[in-house]
Amino acid sequence: MKRRKAAVSGIADAPLDTRSQERARLDRIPSLAPDRLQTYDASADNVGRFLRLLGERITRPLAVSLTACVHCGLCADSCHYFLARPDDPTMTPVYKADQIRRIFKRHLDWTGRVVPWWVHAGSPRNDEDLNRLKNIVFGTCSACRRCTLNCPMGVDTGLLVRFTRGLLTEVGIVPEGVFNVSRDQWETGNQMAVTEEEYLETLQWMEDELRTEFGTPEVDIPVDRPDCDVLYTINPREVKFDPRSIANAARVFFVAGEKWTLPKWGWDQTNFGLFSGDDKLGAYVARNVYEAAERLRAKRIVISECGHGYRSTRWEGYNWAGYDQKVPTESVVVTLQRYLREGRIRVDPARNPDPVTFHDSCNIARSGDLVEEPRWVLRRVVTDFREMHPNRRENLCCTGGGGLLSMAEYRPLRLEVAKIKAEQLKATGAKLVCTMCHNCIDGLTDVIKHYKLEMKVVQVLDLVSNALVIPE
Amino acid sequence: MSKLLSALENEVQIGALLFMTVVYTLRLIWIFRFKSGRERTTAAGSEAAGISYSLMNVAMPWAMESTRKRPWFYAQFVIFHLGVVAAITATFIIPYAPALFKVKAVVRLFQVIIGAACLVGLLRFIRRLRNPTLRLISTADDYLSLALMILFFAAGVLAVPNEYRKAEWPIAIFFGLTAFFLIYVPFSKICHYLYYPFSRYFLGRTLGHRGAMPPGMKGKRTCLPSSPDGGGSR
């Protein structure tokens, strides 16, 4: 590494904004309960509670990730924050992880307890220090886990960041956006506070459009139909901003002759608990989905295209909820692949002539298992597919991951470091960037707009639906 | 051989080794006191394959972008750790199989390996001092551990000829440092090798279960086709 002059971002000094928390307290919203949503109380012993929880919640994988780091610095160049700000050593994953590591060492590790100065062990002195920690773990890391896969020791910095976020969430020292979305998901069961009426009306609207398109009442968007082969779960963003993605899924299900349904409750497969580090919220939201499948006796849970939703519902949620997996749980992209393989749907790639590249969602590619499946599908539904580099498990974050899209105070830094992603996108020469993640849609759209790229973001289902050959 | 050197090579080493063993045992007990969660999802891959791949990562520089793009850095890592193995081996050869170091070629081989490791250690020390990122994160333990290793290697180069009749001091320094290491290591970052199997095991287990590690293994998953496979193509 070359000699560099240090130039820190200053993001660590962003103040704690608690206006939403105060409003929630005044409104006495039901989710403000000891085992649910927490708010910040300046008069409480927040440092003491933080340290108590640290001791209680630490697991073996976390403990070894906290002790195993040798400070080799190899993780630095795997982080898009550091790649975009090479003069700022506070942007390295090791520095970020060290902020919780030093507290762990001071309170739980031998050497740090006896001679703290020897190993940079230290304790947060007050809420200001916790706020500083908040700005580092929420504002300078998208928990994409690229550094984890590039660490020779196997230190899981993404896991450490999420763990620290979870401790801060318990004392209400969180960005406003994180509190707001968590509140909405606790209160309404979905992270965009979509009401049941709004949800059902949107589904009805899409069903009406499909019936007009197909000219038959046989096409439908069923809700709470029991004994189906597929329970389809979606992202609230689809109801709010992109209902045509629901129609696209319904169109494919209809053509494939699928017996499917959406649940009336438990339809939100996204999970802000993944981002806030709040396992209780994670468990609550995931359990809603699993119980919906059980209640309706569905044979399979299918998750619409969403990176963190897939990771939460397919992998983490069962563990958070202490719920043994009973039915297969898969991404809709896998469902599409199966339909194509089994000949249940036919596609004409000529209908998607524009050059398309694929952006791997961090939560799906690095923390999940889907890398080749979307490519398999895309190669059949577009005529010009081109990889971006690096790709698959080495792909760079869209920069909107880790819940950062909901944290307005960190937006300038997020867009600054997005130049790495912008360069990567531009180099493909593609007109369309396809991703199987709603978070990435917004993250990439921000990048494209900010860096004035001539590109549009689409999803796999959009392209499949567009290429779908409707039988006579 | 003086009594001091004899004691350093034998009683002191054995005592220090015993101390290290006790501390490591306590350290392992400490690690196992932290709970490890139970996996409740059905596998999309193989935990065993993931764990094996993750543990073997150290010998696969192509597996990670961070080492693939820095072959020289990886080479330094290999040289440094070969030096560690050679120097530790020498601490056993000198008192228990001294005949081996009567063979000049063996002595030269050890000197080359340990000497190269010493040079790498120096390069790493300079890197740690010069690089702002490393300076920011480096602790006193990081500096001392590396400095001690450099000294240990330097002493090792001088000690392996084992010519105590000519001069005892290089061997005495080498064994003195060894004893100090055995006592200091469990409290320093040098004991990272104790944690390596754990951290790589957990990463490999999680990602192996999900079919994300090793890359390209998902099609060879171990779960039965009739079981709920939880997604992914067959």
Summary of the model, kept short:
With 472 residues, chain A is mainly α. Chain A has helices at 19-27, 46-57, 60-67, 80-84, 93-108, 110-114, 127-139, 146-149, 157-170, 176-188, 196-214, 236-240, 244-256, 273-276, 279-295, 307-321, 332-342, 362-365, 372-381, 411-417, 419-428, 438-450, 460-467, and strands at 230-233, 260-261, 301-303, 329-331, 356-359, 385-386, 432-435, 456-458.
Helix-strand pattern of chain B, N to C? Answer: HHHHHHHHHH
What do we call the CATH topology of the largest domain in chain A? Fumarate Reductase Iron-sulfur Protein, Chain B, domain 2
Largest sheet of chain B: none
Q: How far apart lie the N and C ends of chain A?
A: 63 Å
Q: Average pLDDT value of chain B?
A: 91
Main sheet properties of chain A: 4 strands, parallel
Shape of chain A: globular
> Would you identify the CATH H-level superfamily of chain B?
Transmembrane di-heme cytochromes, Chain C
As a percent range, the share of strand residues of chain A is 5-15%
Question: What is the name of the CATH architecture of chain B?
Answer: Up-down Bundle
- The radius of gyration computed from the alpha-carbon positions of chain A, rounded to a whole number of angstroms, is 23 Å
Please describe what this structure looks like.
Chain A is mostly helical and 472 residues long. Chain A contains 23 helices and eight strands. Chain A has three domains: 11-174, Fumarate Reductase Iron-sulfur Protein, Chain B, domain 2; 190-341, no CATH class; 347-467, Rossmann fold. Chain A has helices at 19-27, 46-57, 60-67, 80-84, 93-108, 110-114, 127-139, 146-149, 157-170, 176-188, 196-214, 236-240, 244-256, 273-276, 279-295, 307-321, 332-342, 362-365, 372-381, 411-417, 419-428, 438-450, 460-467; strands spanning 230-233, 260-261, 301-303, 329-331, 356-359, 385-386, 432-435, 456-458. In chain A, the strands form two sheets. In chain A, strands 2-1-3-4 form a four-stranded parallel sheet. In chain A, helix 22 links the parallel strand 7 (432-435) and strand 8 (456-458). In chain A, helix 11 crosses helix 13 and helix 17 crosses helix 19 (372-381). The N and C termini of chain A lie far apart (63 Å). The model of chain A has no long low-confidence stretch (mean pLDDT 96). Chain B starts with a helix and ends in a 25-residue tail after the last helix. In chain B, helix 1 runs parallel beside helix 2, helix 1 packs parallel to helix 9 (169-184) and helix 2 (11-33) packs parallel to helix 9. Chain B is mainly α and 234 residues long. Chain B has ten helices and no strands. Chain B is globular, with a radius of gyration of 22 Å. Helices cover 67% and strands 0% of the residues of chain B. At the A-B interface, helix 3, helix 5, helix 16, strand 4 and helix 17 of A face helix 4, helix 7, helix 8 and helix 10 of B.
